[in-house]
Amino acid sequence: EDQVTQSPEALRLQEGESSSLNCSYTVSGLRGLFWYRQDPGKGPEFLFTLYSAGEEKEKERLKATLTKKESFLHITAPKPEDSATYLCAVQVPGGGNKLTFGTGTQLKVEL
Amino acid sequence: DAGVTQSPTHLIKTRGQHVTLRCSPISGHKSVSWYQQVLGQGPQFIFQYYEKEERGRGNFPDRFSARQFPNYSSELNVNALLLGDSALYLCASSLEGVQGYGYTFGSGTRLTVV
What angle do CA A16, A18, A21 make, to 5 degrees? Predict the structure, then answer.
């Protein structure tokens, strides 16, 4: 069965203190790995899709990378507005467009 | 452009009742998926519909059903509600077959079963 594990469960950073969130996965095959941001009471907001090991994508202070077993979401010089839950999800071949999500990392950035 | 629209935003139901949740996808999106998100967990896949056909079903009991209409909007129905059905129900739409395009989620319907 496809599994996605995210760590840490929660992370508290000072403004400007860079860090990384981890998403490890066990799948029969990978069609895509997705990162989403979710604010309280809202639906997930799409950030990135990664398809193959070695791929990297950037958006403002966020950078996502992918290896054969895990993905990292690097946050450089975070600001309080980056506070949210970050969700990782995988899509596998033959699964339609079903996404299997991890439980998320709750990030809090303080002044 | 309007995003994914879900209604109602909040709902309180009694155990044993039936509920219908509605979703309108982004214009041009023909695929709609439903997810259940319990507090503190990631979303869990319930159904996917594409061009009015069921394309996938998650590990949920038969009390859960869905359908997609000719205008690509969708309904999720849950019968005989249990306390454990309390959750945020999310709808996501996508351009089927377009690589690199993320799934756009609505803001969800918060269902509370008492």
Answer: 140
Tokens of B78: 């849950």
Tokens of B2: 């309007």
Interface test with B, best of A9, A86, A99, A100 (most B CBs within 10 A): A99
- CA-nearest residue to B96 within chain A is A97
Give CA separation, A78 vs A20, A74, A86, A109, B61, in Å: 11, 10, 14, 7, 42
Return per-residue pLDDT of chain A as tens, 111 residues: 889 999 999 999 999 999 999 999 998 888 899 999 999 989 999 999 999 999 999 999 999 999 999 999 999 999 999 999 999 999 888 777 789 999 999 999 999
Strand order in the sheet with B5-7: B5-7, B19-24, B74-78, B64-68
Per residue, the 3-state secondary structure of B15-80, as one string, reads CCCCEEEEEECCCCCCEEEEEEECCCCCCEEEEEEECCEEEEECCCCCCEEEEECCCCCEEEEECC
Residue from A59, A85, A97 to probe the interface with B (highest B Cβ count within 10 Å):
A97
Query: How wide is the angle at C-alpha B58 spanned by C-alphas A47 and B32, nearest 5°?
Result: 50
